[in-house]
């Protein structure tokens, strides 16, 4: 898997962590969803439109699930990747 978070960890560190299952795929996905949502909102795109756009890339997730991920409790996401 290509490193989707180069702003947080370099490629070799990501490969090592991912290979040893120290970064959870779901938590990584949630972090990426929150990051993209935040980028779209910074461009003044309505929240509903942002979530609909994200849903096109993640069709397995329902609208409400994405909404809960991106608009959930910010204190819950203190550690961006929730290392296991």
Structure description:
- The chain is 55% helix and 0% strand.
- By secondary structure, it is mainly α.
- The longest helix has 18 residues, at 25-42.
- The model has no long low-confidence stretch (mean pLDDT 89).
Task: Give a quick summary of the entry.
This protein is an all-alpha fold and 84 residues long. 55% of the residues lie in helices and 0% in strands.
Count of separate DSSP helical elements: 4
Question: Over the alpha carbons, how many angstroms does the gyration radius reach?
Answer: 13 Å
Order of helices and strands: HHHH
Helix content: 40-55%
Which consecutive residue ranges, at least 5 long each, have pLDDT under 50?
none
What percent strand?
under 5%
Please tell me the overall pLDDT.
Answer: 89
Shape: elongated
Number of distinct beta strands: 0
Q: Which terms would index this structure?
A:
single chain, 84 residues, mainly alpha, 0% strand
Q: Helices, strands, pairings?
A:
Layout (H helix, E strand, L loop, with lengths): L10 H9 L5 H18 L4 H11 L5 H8 L14
Helix pairs in contact: 2-3, 3-4
